[in-house]
């Protein structure tokens, strides 16, 4: 009857979810998508979340055909329902090494590449027209940003989760809180440590080379050697 | 509820919606249908059941559940406990009837 086929990836499942979700009516879709955001933004294994989301969607689609609503199926309090699910699935530890390594290396190669890009193109132009001096090295605060990256992602997930099951005003409020905190934190950092952060004396072309090397290693590790490891 | 879910799965491999329909056919109605999913997650965590996503020729891929060895043992345990409890409660109720 049912043949077993290759294991679906998290991406396959998310794509199938996007496709099948179109069949929901507006009321059910709203209800379901709030749960979807909440569960996807929770610190649990993503594979389990996607599997569960597909099951719940399948259930809801059948119920919808039979004239029942999402509220009939999942109850009046979807937030408590989701919390129960998360608790049962088991929260991941805040420090999950593959995720930390992934985000750390991403921020770092982006840092080196954008440093090279700015010093090779943007700054020379600014220098030419406005006399802005071209920095002579790589600002070490990229390392701090790379280390804080995982925490920032965690924060983003927390605020996204907080924005679900709320009215429009509260949703937007929660949604904007993180950018405000981040920009505020960044400015404060700049203000306090303006001159304290060392500048690594490397030329722009070397930044470019380091960025490219980091990028290749990042790809090799996460898309190649450890492809099967769940990062998020 | 856990015991009932295990009992239904003993008979066949089953997916979420089918399971909730089957349970309500037997007269077991829960607060909401959706409450079977936390139960299924718990049973998987305890290794009493396993679920596998399978593609089917006439429908979307679905996660089908079946009992594990441990699940079979847990079901036997549940059955024993339930029979004992049922006998005891029946006896107590009978006592009330006789005393009237």
UniProtKB/TrEMBL annotation, chain A:
Residue spans crossing the bilayer? 100-122, 142-160, 172-192, 204-222
* Protein name from the UniProt record: DUF1129 domain-containing protein
Top-level taxon of origin: Bacteria
Q: Which UniProt keywords apply?
A: Membrane, Transmembrane, Transmembrane helix
Query: Which species is this UniProt entry from?
Result: Hydrogenibacillus schlegelii
Q: Decide whether keyword Transmembrane helix is in the record.
A: yes
Asked whether the keyword Zinc is assigned, the reply is no
Lineage, opening ranks: Bacteria, Bacillati, Bacillota, Bacilli, Bacillales
